[in-house]
Amino acid sequence: MEEQPSAIEFRLDPASGVPTYLQLVQQVEQALRMGWLQEGDRLPRVREVVAGLAINPNTVLKAYRELEHRGLAAGRRGQGTFVRGLPAGVVPLRERAALRRGLLDWLRTARAAGLDEEGMAAVFEDALRDLRNGSDGSDGVVA
Amino acid sequence: MSTITAGLPLGGLLGAVWLRHRTALLTVLAVLAGVCALLLVSGLYVHAGYRSSGAAACDPSLLECNRVWKDFIRGWGAPLMVGNTVLYLFGGAVGAFVGGPLVAREFEYGTFRFAWTQGAGRSRFTVGGLALAGTVLAGATALVGVVLAWWNEPMARQGGRFSPALFVEGAPALAGRALLAFGCAALAGAVLRRTVVAVGAGLVASVAVTFVAEAMRFHYRTPLEDTVHTLMQTSVDQRWTGSTWFSDPAGNRIGSDALFDLGKGFDDAERLVRDGGYAVHEVYQPADRYWSFQAVEFGWMALLGLAACAGAVWWLRRRAA
Amino acid sequence: MRAPETVIDCGGLGKRYRRSWALRDCHLAIPAGHVVALVGPNGAGKSTLLNLAAGLTLPTEGALSVLGGELPGSPDALDRIGFVAQNAALYPGLTVRDLLRIGRGLNRRWDGARARAHLDSLGIPLDRRYGRLSGGQQAQVSLALALAKRPELLLLDEPLAALDPLARHDFMAVLLTAVAEDGLSVLFSSHAVAELEQGCDYLVVLAGGRVQVGGEVDDLLGGHRMLTGPTAEADAVAARLPVVRDRRAGAQSHLLVRTGGADAPVGGGWRQQRIGLEELVLAYLREPAAAALPGPSGAVRRDERVLQS
User: Fold this and answer.
1) Vertex A106, ends A100 and A111: CA angle to 5°?
2) Residue B119 and residue C106: Cβ atoms within 8 Å?
3) How far is it, in rounded angstroms, from Cα C44 to Cα C39?
């Protein structure tokens, strides 16, 4: 049975103060957001993670359980843990590229209007706050 | 692929114990082989001299052969003199050198923490080591004893194999003494946990037992008694004479001084003994009892060595369940 | 064979060497399936506890059972427990291959193929004498020999002490991989607490021959908070919550409190955060009278003594 190498590899930041299992969960979520992990990809085997990072297997199991709990992964008996859903707030790559182009256009317009970078950031945070509070007219849900 | 066996196979245990003690045992065998080589070389030299000096052809019971014998010893006898002295004292030393490190080294290096936490447990491991080393030791020293018997032929022919220096070199006696030193050294190593001290203890035991054995040896079997009527040496065999006592015509025991006082010297005493009803009683062990004596000496020494080994195992066991 | 629930169970365990007690009045019930870190200062009794569990020595008082009721040193216990001594002492004149053969001859259960493959993958030559290997390689060989027995419990006495950081990482990776594959329980003693945080999920702190802390790492870390706030309010807080360690400066104080899992109920003037394992262990070691031991249900006790520094 040919096994593909895992798409991602974990690393640890022992000084960050974040519990180890949460770091693993966050790295999976970030990989999903960045598109490095797609639906159906296999997460690294517990044994591989343990051998690479020298952490307790229970920690890895805990992380994968949390991912299951959040609906992002599902374990298949004897085969490993696989990506199932996508975290809220994840946008496919093509749409993301389009969004980025739109944002660049707006930034050029803002610069032409005389705003410097701090001014642009202020406008952006104001608008983000409005979206969060729902005062823009639509029901904003924060991821 | 893992295998689970119900009991611990003996072959596996012996193999493991052999690997553990292999270096020490091969070293001992090499040393003993060197000793044998030395014996062969010096023995050829001595035997050549024995023949060429005419001592080989001379009957030791004859008076004139004494001079020939002395000439031989003066010319070629040095290896025999030196060798026999050394062997008399230190013939059992090899046992101490094998037994001392056997247990003590495990403590000195800390390897007992590995050996005693394996499935076989400390008792089987120790017993296996003692049994293997003891067997190899006994066999090798017995072989050296065989070579020594050839090497000492001139001395044996002259003074008899029962003489103290020669008796301890017989294969069974040599092996027995080595085993006793081995056991004492192993026990000392188990209790004191220091190789050097343990070897020393074995050496002391080996030397001490030599003297103890010499004091006891005559009484291994009830001696025989010969009654003769001459003061001359009559026996031409290689018997071991323990003591001689005299009796008057009535059969009462008299001291040798009293006998010689009755006459005016040796000739008068001789006449009394020959014609006057006085008798000389010789208490002796016949020569053909040599091998049974060797067996007895091997028996009690080996038994003591075995008891010491059992003591060592018992001592180690009582530190755990 | 049914898997045992506790791997180390002792009550009133004590061991005396000549005049001094290395362990005194120890009570422990270490559950199976964990990687347990045994920490404490020198002379705290860590080696003694491991030696007792391995059956190398006998207790002076009290009782100790392993693997759910076995006597340490019994043939059954020796079969199912692996032990790696401090400084990994093995016969220096023998080759690695010879040592594997010795292990095979002395054990009923032996997976030599796995050990050999494993040492090959680490690049350790089987025909080199043990005495000529580096410290890290020796530690790996000792570990391989212990794992080849396929034990249910592995005891290690300061296995990382003589190893450089790379060797330490490799050693822990191998050890934890075996835990992942076989589900074995591990108990190992160490000075260096910082490295243990990744690998261990159960902690036992020994100090002065007694058990001071015992519990799951997650529970312990989740059940403590470091409160930082105004010294003027420190007494009030300390009166309400069980304080482990109390450090006060002129204006600001740090209080390490036990909360049983939730956040501490303190006002806005106080900042609270979780602490790491090393800080937790150090705090307890500096406060010998404090203790954090699991109650009958395994939860962290709430009715501990409050300390005033």
Assistant:
1) 125
2) yes
3) 9
My answer on whether B132 and B26 are in the same domain is yes
Neighboring chain B residues of C51 at a CB cutoff of 8 Å? 113
Assess A18–C contact: CB distance below 8 Å, yes or no: no
Note the pLDDT tens digit of each residue in C230-244: 888 888 888 888 888
B23 contacts chain C (CB < 8 A)? yes
- Give the range of the structural domain holding residue B264, as residue numbers without chain letter: 240-285
Q: Are residues B145 and B181 in the same domain?
A: yes
Q: Does residue B293 share a domain with residue B281?
A: no
Please indicate, yes or no, whether residues B196 and B254 belong to a single structural domain of this protein.
Answer: no
Residue C173 and residue A52: Cβ atoms within 8 Å? yes
* Cβ count within 10 A of residue C41: 13
Average pLDDT across each block of 10 residues of chain B; the chain has 321 residues. List them in order. Answer: 57 92 95 94 89 78 78 84 87 93 93 93 93 96 93 84 88 95 96 95 94 90 83 73 82 78 76 80 86 93 96 86 35
Partner B contacted by C55 (CB < 8 A): yes
B2, part of any domain: no
Is this complex's ipTM strictly greater than 0.95? no
Does B31 share its domain with B166? yes
Q: Within an 8 Å CB–CB cutoff, is residue C63 touching chain B?
A: no
Closest residue in B to C97 (Cα–Cα) = B19
- Answer whether C289's CB lies under 8 Å from C213's CB: no
- Of the candidates B289, B78, B288, B89, the residue with the CA atom closest to the CA atom of residue B169: B89
Distance from CA of B202 to the nearest CA of C (A): 24
Min Cα–Cα distance to chain B from C286, Å: 33
Same structural domain, B163 and B312: yes
Please, what's the b/e burial string for C216-229 (b: 16 or more CB within 10 A of its CB; e: otherwise)? bbbbbbbbbbbbeb
CB contact under 8 A, C180 and A46: yes
